[in-house]
Specification:
It is a single chain. The protein is mainly α. It folds into 2 domains: about 100 residues, Arc Repressor Mutant, subunit A (Orthogonal Bundle), CATH 1.10.10; about 90 residues, Arc Repressor Mutant, subunit A (Orthogonal Bundle), CATH 1.10.10. Helices cover about 45% and strands about 10% of the residues. The protein contains 8 helices and 6 strands. The radius of gyration is 17 Å and the shape is globular. The mean pLDDT is about 90.
């Protein structure tokens, strides 16, 4: 990555974070070197700020720890701040960061279009529309499965929600919720907070 790309990324991050946070997050994301994973010891930050920066990046779902307590949900991941810990950048976040490095702004819709590129154009368009209809209904970035069924009734033919959610999860756009203060028996999903940036 060029110095210009790093500056562009920091400029984009300044639209969301303070100067100090934007600077350290830009360096953290820069440490991935266009890859999708990195070890703790390879992150190019001083020890004094590294742990706080990793914590912020995880809270914003920019990076996800590989180690999990029980499943693939983001909230089940075990954040370790020590050498040997491996962090992964979700697919959609990688596209979001790439775009910010090039243009100094965040374009969530552009990143989503890129992770939908393998889908048929009509299906990709419907899936993006469906996702954008879900976003305003999220509370603390979480949406309930019943809402998805309700929104899906507006499509003719209806979307295959299993296929849609599988793709959203694999792309890092959403994650199933497995714990927390939610109503028993309901299925909830967390939307990646970074996909609200630039809206």
């Amino acid at each position: 990555m060029t110095a210009n790309a790093l500056e562009n990324l920091e400029t984009a991050l300044l639209s969301v974070f303070s100067n100090e946070e934007a600077g350290c997050l830009a360096r953290l994301l820069h440490s991935f070197n266009s890859g999708e994973s990195i070890y703790y010891e390879n992150i190019d930050l001083s020890h004094a700020v590294k742990d706080d920066c990793i914590l912020t990046a995880f809270e914003e779902r920019l990076i996800i720890p590989q180690l999990s307590s029980q499943g693939s949900a983001w909230e089940d991941r075990m954040l370790q701040l020590q050498p040997g810990a491996l962090y992964i950048m979700p697919w959609v976040t990688r596209r979001l960061v790439d775009g910010a490095e090039a243009n100094a702004v965040f374009d969530p819709n552009g990143a989503i279009r890129q992770v939908m590129a393998e889908k048929d154009e009509g299906l990709a368009r419907a899936m993006i529309d469906f996702f954008n209809k879900l976003k305003p209904h999220a509370v603390s970035y979480k949406v309930e499965g019943g809402l998805m069924n309700t929104l899906n009734r507006g499509y003719d033919p209806p979307l295959d929600l299993h296929e849609v959610l599988d793709h959203f999860v694999l792309a890092g756009m959403m994650s199933p919720c497995t714990r927390g203060p939610i109503t028993k028996g309901l299925v909830w999903y967390e939307i990646n907070p970074s996909l609200y940036w630039g809206d």
